[in-house]
Every structure is written in structure tokens, then in C-alpha cells.
Amino acid sequence: MNTSPKRKARALLLCATAFMFLCFELAAADPLVFSDTGLEARYQKLTEELRCLVCQNQNLADSDAPLAQDLRLEIFEMLEAGRSDEEIKTFLVDRYGDFVLYRPAFGGNTLLLWLLPSLLFLLGLMVVIVSVRRRSKLPADAPDDFSN
Amino acid sequence: MITRLLPFLIFLLLGALLAIGLTIADRKTDLPSPLIGKPMPEFSLPVLGQPAVEVTRAELVGQPFLLNVWASWCVTCRVEHPVIDALAKSGQLPVIGLNYRDEAGDALAWLEHFGNPYALNLADVSGRTAIDFGVYAAPESFLVDAKGQIVFKHIGALTPEIIDQEILPRLAAEAQP
Fold first, then answer.
1. Interface of B with A in 33-72 (CB under 8 A)
2. Is B126 near chain A, with CB under 8 Å?
3. Which is more confidently placed, B105 or A6?
């Protein structure tokens, strides 16, 4: 009849998928109601580039930690009160330090953090240029050994 | 010769970096607080169990104290409780509790069950004041000096070692002008 293992498995899969979507739906339910869509867009952007301090490797938008909920509410209220993005970031940095920013400000003790990748790239480029030049100076029939 | 060794040297360097990263990975309690050396933030909070009585920052300034962030739902706070209790009983430093995101009934039952080491307990039900203090999660402790400045902060459960090596020496240094 209809109760072949394949059918059962398919029905189970369907249920699981339906349940999964239900969960997504519940997780996405945000009780915050913005007075205009511009504020909501800024809220999304801010919570994505601010760190959840409790979980540390999640941003505020994705985290379910109680502190993240509190901070989201705080950001929502500051946005509705007409505060700028900079003011909101300063508010959080004053309390939690630069660590709260996923994109820390350029300068001071973050200089090395920002410049190191470019410096390493330049270093690599120099190594490549030097070794290519050295090799091109060798006669064409020289053995492929540039260790000197 | 050097060119031959270079990949190996780079490998060693990367290995050393990874080893450092791994050993300090779980030291998230070492995150510095920007509030150290700054005045304790302004607040006005009700006393736990007495919603009509509000206590402000100004009323607490004048003598050093330890502000301990705790909650009845916080498991680590139970582990920390005997340490707080011993400090309070030693009479060296009064401990003021900041009851964080808690239900008054649960918090009072918790104190009833484990004992109440706190000279005073402030109820921060919304967690708003905790944000001003840069609190991550309970338990956390702040050493506040007689001028109302935050001198030291510890994230996580206090231990007798931290009290003896970090908190009491700072308190003694504070006492000598």
C-alpha cells in the first residue's frame, strides 16, 4: 500500500522542513516597529557591524543573548530619538571599548591592525619581484636552482 | 641556504602565532573596560524588595565598595557566593549587589537560601544601568573607590586569589593619599 519506507521518509522530511520554516518564522519575529524605513535600514546596518559582547563571534543582529537583546533595544531607542550612527557607536565604545566594533576606527592602537595586511602584501610583492629578477639574470640553460 | 630555510622559518612563525592564539583564546575575561579610571556612571535604582526606595550614585560615593553584578538565574554566581560572603564577613570591603535582569521574588529567595552578604542590593530589572557599566554578563565585579571612581573590574566569578592579589592591594593603595 502507501506505507512504503520511501513514502514514510518523504513525509517525515516534509514535516521536518515545515517545522524548520516555522522556526525561522518565529526567530525572525522582531517586535521593534520603526517610525520610518530609513531608520530600520540604519538599525540593520548598525546591528550587523556591532559585536555581541557575550558570544563575541556573533554580531548584535544574530545573537539571542540577553545583553544583545538589551543593546538592540537601546540602539532602536537611540535611532528613534534621532541620534546619529556615530553617536550610537560612541555610546557603545564608551562602555564596552573598541572591541564592540567589527570595523574599528582607523588610528591609534588599531593602526597595526589596519596596515598589517597591506604591509604583508607589499613584502610578498617585493620577494616575488626580487626572485623573478634574479632568475631572469641567469643564463637560459642554467640549472633551476636559485638557492646560491 | 637561507632561501631553502625560509619556508620552514615561516612555518615556525605561523606555528608560534597559532600557539599564542590558542593559549589566550579563552581569556575573554581579560578584555579591558574603558571605564577603569573613570567615574562610576550615574544611576538611580530601587532597592531589591523595596521598589519605592531609590538609591542614586551620589548616595553611594564616600567610601570604597565592591559592586557585584549577580542574578538568581546565574549559575556561576552560586559558585562565587562563598567568596563574596567571606569578603563581606571579613569587614575589609562592603559589597553592594547589582541584581541584574532578575525577578525580585527569585532574587530574594536566592538570598534567603544562600545567605545575604550584600550591604545593599540594587535591582536593575531592565539591565539599563548594567549597560552604562559595560556589563557583559553576571557575575562581574567593580571596585569603586571613595571618590566614586572605578578602579578595577573583574569579569566572571571572583576567587580568593583575585581578592587578595588584585582588589585588596588596590584598596590599600587607595587608602594612602
1. 33-35
2. yes
3. B105
